[in-house]
Amino acid sequence: MVQQISTEELQTHSLQIDDIVSYLQKNGWQILNHPNPRLLVFQGDKDDAGNPIQLVLPSQNSFEDSDRLLTKAINLLAAIAQKPPQEIIDAIADGKLR
Known about the structure:
This protein has one domain (about 15-90). A 3-stranded antiparallel β-sheet has the order 1-2-3. A hairpin with a 6-residue loop joins β1 (about 30) and β2. By secondary structure, it is α+β, with helices and mostly antiparallel strands. It is built from 4 helices and 3 strands; from the N terminus they run ααβββαα. The chain has helices at about 5-10, 15-25, 65-80, 85-95; strands at about 30, 40-45, 50-60.
């Protein structure tokens, strides 16, 4: 099983939405149009069933559910890359590809 990070653990990092967006775009994720301006929706590779993987981010760090959405995003990216969440966080913070 792939390691996951909790919302409380993620709060110790100062991840910014722009940094995550940049990381996603560098790794081939495409932004999708979404009717809710509070959400940024990205589409990546296909899952094992052939369906596109979607990742949802808040459009701002200050929303009430931002930490929960960021935690889900980091855990999803870690599962896809089969790496620990901390490695994904470090790559985002450093502006590097996974």
